Alpha-L-rhamnosidase-like protein (Kribbella jiaozuonensis), 800 residues
Amino acid sequence: MATVDDVRRQFRNPPPEGRPMMRWWWFGPSATRDELDRELHAMAAAGLGGVEVAFVYPMGPVTAPFGSPELLELVGHAARTAHSLGLRFDVTLGSGWSYGGGHIGPEHAARQLRWDRRGIGGAAYDVPVVEAWPGDEFVAAFVGDGSSYVEVPVRDGIIHVPAGGQPREVLIATSRVTGQQVKRTAAGAEGHTLDHYSATAASEHIRRVAEPLLQAATPELLGSVFCDSLEVYGADWTPGIFDEFAKRRGYELRPRLYELLVDTDESRQLRIDFGRTLSELYEDNFLKVFQQWAAGYGVPFRIQSYGEPPATMSSYRFADIFEGEGWGWTRIPETRWASSAANIYGRSVVSAEVWTWVHSPSFRATPLDLQGEAHEHFLSGVNQLIGHGWPYSPSNGPGLGWIFYAAGALDDRNPWWPLATDLFASLHRLSWLLQQGTPVRPVKIYIPASDAYAETGLSEPNNLYRVARRLIPESIPRTIREAGLDYDLIDDDAVSVVDPADVPLVVVPDGTTTPAETTRWLDAVRAAGGTVVTDIATLAEHLPPAPFTPQQDVGVVHRRLDDGDIYFVANTGPEARTLTFDEPMERWTSNDVTRSLTLHPYESAVLTKTTTSATAEPSDVVEAALGEWSVAFDNNIRPVTIPHRWEDTPELATYSGSATYQTDLHLPDTDGRLFLDLGPGTPVDADSEPYLPPNSYRALITPPVGVAAEIYLNDTRCGTVWAPPYRVDITDAARPGANDLRIVVHNTAANALSADQHLLRAAEDVTAEFGHRFDLQHIEHAADYLNSGLLAVPTITQTG
C-alpha cells in the first residue's frame, strides 16, 4: 500500500515494474547470436520490459533443433544479454502448446474415454476386447435398457454379454490416447500432448524439456517459467482415476461409469463429481508439480490456467503469476478469470497475453489499436501486459521477413516504430499505477461450476471456463460495468478464503446449483448484511452507488490507497464521452481540476478527488495562416494538397514508411498555450472489415493522420500523435509571425505486406519440408481499409 502523494510522485517516471513485455517467437528454431542481440537492444530502446521466449514452427532452414545443445546455448546467451540490458527474461517450458513432444509416449499422453454404443437383441454375446489404436486400454462394458445398466464381466480378453430381454444396449468404454499433437511445434519437438492429470507425465516433461531450458537460461536470470493456455482437447481420462475418484468422492466410479454418457436425474451428480475430480487431478498432478519444481530454483511459475483440462478459477492459486487473455471489459474474458483469482488470492500483479489477433493480419495494427486493446485489459483487472508479440526475423532476409501466423508483428519493422517509445511509456505508467493499492470491486459473480460440470462431456467440451461463461448471462457483467462498478468472479473454493462480511453483493445466476458449503457461505453473506441476487432482472436495483455518474463506453477501475482513491477511466468507443462529477476531480497528466471531463475516443485518464476548486480553461481556434504544403518521400519533395492519402496514388499504394509534410505557419502574438490539432477522426462501422474474427481488436475510427506522426515546429520536436485527441502542445517552440511546421507521418507495414510474395513462398517451402503446421491468417486482406498520410488540415487552438 502507498499514499496518493507517493503514487503521484512516481507516476510520471515509474520504476521498471510494469513495463510491457513481448512474447518473442523463435521460429525453427533458427537464430543467430548477432540477431538475438540486435532485437534485444531494439526492445530495450523502445522501452519494453522484457521477453517471453516461445519456440514455434520453422519459417526457414532449422539451425538449432528444439532441445539441441545449439538451442540451449542460444537460450543462455539471450538470457545473459537480456539481463545486461535490464530486461526480464521468461521461458516457455516447451514448444508450441500444450506441453508435450516426442518424449511423451502412450503411457504419458493425454487420454480420452471413448464409448462404443451398440443396440443388441436378447441373445448372449461374446465380444473380444479390441485395441484399435496403439495405447488403447479397455476400461469397462455395460449392458442396459437405455437408462439403467449393469457392468458386464470380462475374462481372458472377452466381454461376456449375458442373454436378456430386448431391446438392449451395450456400452464399451475404452481409454484412448487423444492423438492430439502439440500445436505449432518447432522442429524436434513434435509429439503427443501430455496427460495433465498425471504427475509422472509432468515429471517426465520436466526432466526432458523444462529442466534443460531452465538450466540453460540459469535460474537467477529468469523472471518466470511459463505455461500457455490449456488446449488439451477432449482429455477427460487418466490411468488410476477409479482409485482417485473413490478417495476424493467417497464412492466407487466404476459401476456407475456409464452415467457419464447417459443423461438421467441420477447421473447429474456423478458428472459433477467426475468433473471436480478432473479439476483436482489437474491441480495436484500438473500445477503443483510444476510450481514446486520451479520454486525449488526460486523461479516463479506463470500460467494461463483456463480451458481443457477443466481448470477452475481457483486453480490459479497453485501457481505464482496468474495470466489471462482476451479483451472485452463488459464481458467475462479469460482475463477476468485470472484477475479475479489474483484479487481473491492476494496477487498484486496479474498479467495478460495482449494483442493476440490484433487487427489481423500482421502489420495492420496501429498504435491506436494497441492502446485501445490495452485499455480493455486494464479495465478487466490486468496490470502487466505481455504483448503477442515480437517475431524473430533475420535482418538480411528477403521482403518483410518472418511473422507469426495469427498475431500482430510488433517489432521495429513497423514504420510507426519511432513512436513506440512514447506508446510503451504511456502503457508502462498505467500498468505500474494499477499495481498500486488494492482493487475496489464491490460485486461478486458466482461461477456455476456444478452446472458446468454437469454439462461437460455430454454436449459441451471439457472446458469449465467456457461452459460457465455461457451459463452466466452476459447482462450480468454488462449491467455491473456500465453502472460504473467492478466485480470479481468467485467459485466454490474461493468462498473459503473470502470473508462474507466483506461482500456487499453476490450475483448468483438464475437456477444455479450450489454445493452445501457455498450455500452456507451465501447465507453468511446475508446474515452479515450483504445481498444475494438471484433474480437477474432486479440486479440494477441492488447495485451500490458508483463513484461518479457512468457514461456509455466508459469503464472505471477503482484502486484504494492508504489515504485515498485513484480512478482509471477509459473511453472504449469511437465517440467522445463527457463525465460529470459531484465534487472536483484532478486529472493527473495535466493537473487540471474539473467537475467535467471529456474523454476523446479511446482516451483514458487517471483521476483523484481533490478539495481544490475546479478551474475552466476555455479553448479557442487561433487565426493562424498556413502556407503551401510539400511532402517528401525519401528526399523526393513535391507539392501536395491536404488532405493527402497515399493509397490514392498508385505508386504509393504499397509503400510502407514515412513522409515529411512541411509548410509555413504564421502565428499571432498570444499569451495562452498553443496546440496543433489534427482533428477528431471519423467513426467507422464495426462491420466494415467483416473478415475479422470477434477476437481481433481494432479501433473503430479513421484517424486524421495515418497512422502516427511526429510534430516539429522550428526544428523542435514538440510531440507525437497516434490517438485522439490528435493534438500537440507547440507553445515552447512557437514564435509570433513565421514558423516552420513539419509533420513526419508513419504508416503501417501492411501496405508492403500486401505486395510481399516472399512470405507466401517461405510458408510453402517450410510446409513442404516440415508438414502443415500453420496457415498465414488473412494475408489476402493486408491491403483492406488502409489510410496512410496526412488526412486532415491542421488547426491551431489556444487555452488559457
Notes: The first strand starts at residue 21 and ends at 27. The first helix runs from residue 4 to 11. Residues 111-177 form one domain. The mean pLDDT is 95.
